[in-house]
Specification:
This protein is mainly alpha-helical. It has helices at 18-38, 62-70, and strands at 2-4, 53-55. It has a two-stranded parallel sheet. InterPro entries: Acyl_CoA_acyltransferase.
Length: 90
Amino acid sequence: MVTVAALYVLPEYRKEGLCRLILYYVNMVHAKRLRQLLNGTSQSTVDPSLLYMHADTEAYNVPTQKFMLRCGYKIVNYTNWFTIIPVERN
């Protein structure tokens, strides 16, 4: 599985197609690796998780979600992230 996360473009470079270009490149590399993996292999023996790409974004980051939807990604589920902070014991 390929994961896209923490893709950030400085404000002055946004709306120039840079993220779309990066996603296109990552997709093409992933497709090339899949072709090599599947070449001469029975598809039933391939782990299905290798066939997918996914992207992570914060739930409040609606602009990124909209961008990913325009790029062909689909929202499948939401995950909650927790920060665990150690507490000193007295």
